[in-house]
Amino acid sequence: xxxxxxxxxxxxxxxxxxxxxxxxxxxxxxxxxxxxxxxxxxxxxxxxxxxxxxxxxxxxxxxxxxxxxxxxxxxxxxxxxxxxxxxxxxxxxxxxxxxxxxxxxxxxxxxxxxxxxxxxxxxxxxxxxxxxxxxxxxxxxxxxxxxxxxxxxxxxxxxxxxxxxxxxxxxxxxxxxxxxxxxxxxxxxxxxxxxxxxxxxxxxxxxxxxxxxxxxxxxxxxxxxxxxxxxxxxxxxxxxxxxxxxxxxxxx
Length: 252
Prior knowledge:
By secondary structure, this protein is an alpha/beta fold.
């Protein structure tokens, strides 16, 4: 294995340039603009499908980009990446710093597969160097779809608005049976204590069902988290190698 271009090893700093992507969310646009927007989305999805088709079953780790290397959540995320690699699964993150870097780093240092799905933002950014494959998207919704599509389980570390967005979308997909029997591990019992209380409040008010929380595990233990994920993966899924097709220019 070797680090991607832009790692500390070769001292080349990879940059994702600043980009003000137009989401076209300000009402109707001229038809040619709408067509262009739809085409851009199509191209991004095809790019994602081609890049991620052969990466194997993933565990996606969501969490804050703001934690430094010495922070307890960074250290725990790094351990989770290591444990995922030991299961023989691929670690996928948003490709940025903080929790994302830590999880990728743990997997990378353990010799496992490590994937980063980056996003273009209105400010320049540097992807973390601990990935075997790194792909950059223009739109958050495309990135989220692909991070869910290739995952067999999810680990939610402490984070902010972006993490909550990813967390709640994953919960909604599980609740509505769009994804089935995929474990969701929430790491950080103290951090997520208010959310756990809110879940009980929603159950009491009848806005969600008691069974809607059965696929969520709140824990601080990497051992308990990995045991929970392994139980679901081993019970429900058999991984079959995907054949590469020369006529789609897929390298053998």
